[in-house]
Amino acid sequence: YIEKHGNADTYQICWLVELKGGSLSLNLVKSMKHLFDLLGNRYPERCGQILVLNPPWTLNVVWSFLKPFLTQGQIDKYQFIKGSETEVRNQLLKFIDDDQLISLLSYKGKAEFTWDFKRMAEEDAQQQ
Predict the structure, then answer these.
(1) To the nearest 10°, the Cα dihedral for 10, 32, 20, 14?
(2) CA distances in angstroms from 42 to 1, 8, 37, 45, 57, listed in the order given
(3) pLDDT number for residue 13
(4) Within a 10 A sphere around the Cβ of 75, how many other Cβ atoms?
(5) Helix intervals (H) in the chain
(6) From CA 44, how far away is CA 37, in angstroms rounded?
(7) Is the pLDDT score of 35 beyond 70?
(8) The pLDDT value given to residue 4
(9) What is residue 105's predicted lDDT score, i.e. its pLDDT?
(10) Rounded-to-integer distance, Cα 105 and Cα 17, Å
(11) What does the pLDDT average to over 48-53?
(12) pLDDT score at 10
C-alpha cells in the first residue's frame, strides 16, 4: 500500500510483515534487524508504517533489545498486531483501506493481486 506523503513528491509505503505460524530463529532476527535498518536509515521518507502481524511472543524480547538502537521516529513506525483474524483485520483497517488489502490474506481484503513473474521479467529485460 503506497500513499502520498502530504504535499511532497514522496510516496510512503505501509509494509505488512505476517509472522503467523512462524517461529523465531536467529536468521529471522538478523533479517528483521536488517529490515529495520534498511527502511529506517536508508529510506526513512518512504517508510510510512510497518505492521507486524501475529508476532511470536519471543519477538517482544527481541524488540526490547532492538528498541534502544532505534530512533523514536523509527520506533513509532512499527505496530505489532495480534489476535484473532477478525481482531487483526479490524486493526489493519485503521491503517489500510479495505480495497487495498489483498484477498489472498486471511483478513479478507477486496484487492485482487496476482504476481506475474514472466511479465515482470520481460519488463525488467526491456528496461536494460
Answers:
(1) -10
(2) 19, 18, 7, 9, 28
(3) 77
(4) 14
(5) 26-37, 57-66, 72-76, 85-92, 117-127
(6) 10
(7) yes
(8) 55
(9) 65
(10) 12
(11) 84
(12) 67
Q: How many CA atoms lie within 13 A of 79 on its CB side?
A: 17
pLDDT per residue as tens digits for the range 70-115: 888 878 888 999 988 889 888 888 888 888 777 656 667 777 777 7
Neighbours of 64 (CB within 10 A): 9
Cell numbers of 2, please? Answer: 503506497
Residue 1 is predicted with a pLDDT of 46
What gap in Å lies between CA 36 and CA 62, rounded to an integer? Answer: 12
Other C-beta atoms closer than 10 Å to the C-beta of 18 total 15
Q: How many angstroms separate the CA atoms of 42 and 108, rounded?
A: 32
Q: How many Cα atoms are found within 13 Å in the side-chain-facing hemisphere of 107?
A: 27
Which of left, alpha, beta for 53 (phi over 0: left; psi -120 to 50: alpha)? beta
